[in-house]
Amino acid sequence: MAYETILVETRGKVGLITLNRPKALNALNSQMQEDVVAALQAYEADETIGAIVITGSEKAFAAGADIKEMHQKSYIDMYMADFFSGWDAMLRIRKPIIAAVSGYALGGGCELAMMCDFIIAGDNAKFGQPEITLGVMPGMGGSQRLTRFVGKSKAMDMCLTGRMMDAEEAERSGLVSRVVPAATLVDEALKAAEKIASFSLPAVLMNKEAVNRSYETTLTEGLRFERRVFHSMFALEDQKEGMEAFSDKRAPNFRNQ
Ligand SMILES: CC(C)(O)CC(=O)SCCNC(=O)CCNC(=O)[C@H](O)C(C)(C)COP(=O)(O)OP(=O)(O)OC[C@H]1O[C@@H](n2cnc3c(N)ncnc32)[C@H](O)[C@@H]1OP(=O)(O)O
């Protein structure tokens, strides 16, 4: 399938989506939202794919929602279109998605990265929620997800001052899982995705679901959910294979069953 605003390549069991509006620093317009969601849904349906990486350019993962597309819209335009709600489809993707962030991840760019399952940052990455400088506030989840990642104090600081956080601070604050040299960012993200894709797909999906559940429920309910899902994994052939392979001192051969 051809996309207008992204490049899509398959590398073995990994889907790689590259945001591709370089002249606008990958500003996220409605077309890009449609393209990214469609590509993710295609990878979700593709049985050969075990994990997905989303990346941008060296200068910008994405410099935010497209201000030029938005700025003339009225309240009723935004409300009736439920503007940005198209991104919610990303949350229904069950396969893991890694954001590989180089350069600017601002506003909607930071929010898109946070919608992924984890973020690997290049050492040149800069994160921010600068909406306050435009007279608005985050609208793709920044005020909620950033607060969960980095805590109230830093999230307030970022949203109220609009300042950027560099890669080192982002790692220290828990926003990103690791920082790597910008030159090797995509390779490192692909390596992580290949590792995930080498495991049992149902086990991967259940791990993702359980970690995400911790954001939505109490500790008691989350622990109960984890135990039930863990028990259910003993119905998988891949559980037998994984544990037998350990005992036999050989590599497991997972069949996603
Ligand atoms: C989703 C919500 C609700 O949360 C809201 C948002 O996301 S609002 C957007 C938040 N993002 C920003 O406010 C960042 C805006 N961009 C910048 O501040 C700067 O571009 C920069 C600091 C990231 C980089 O500066 P510089 O290197 O000087 O490049 P520029 O010349 O400014 O940009 C190059 C080119 O890209 C266009 N651009 C950049 N960001 C956006 C954007 N968010 N929307 C639309 N277009 C953007 C910029 O206008 C330039 O294009 P031309 O004007 O030269 O055609």
TrEMBL record:
GO terms of biological process kind: fatty acid beta-oxidation
GO-annotated molecular function: enoyl-CoA hydratase activity
Please, which domain of life does this record's source organism belong to?
Bacteria
User: Looking at its record, which EC class is this enzyme?
Assistant: lyase
Q: Short name of one Pfam family for this protein?
A: ECH_1
Q: Which PANTHER family match?
A: ENOYL-COA HYDRATASE, MITOCHONDRIAL, ENOYL-COA HYDRATASE-RELATED
**PROSITE patterns associated with the record:** ENOYL_COA_HYDRATASE (PS00166)
Swiss-Prot/TrEMBL keywords: Fatty acid metabolism, Lipid metabolism, Lyase
**Enzyme Commission no:** 4.2.1.17
Q: Which NCBIfam families match?
A: PRK05862.1
Q: Which transformation does this protein catalyse, written as a reaction?
A: a 4-saturated-(3S)-3-hydroxyacyl-CoA = a (3E)-enoyl-CoA + H2O; a (3S)-3-hydroxyacyl-CoA = a (2E)-enoyl-CoA + H2O
This protein's record includes keyword Protease:
no
Q: Can you name this protein?
A: enoyl-CoA hydratase
Please describe what this protein does: Could possibly oxidize fatty acids using specific components.
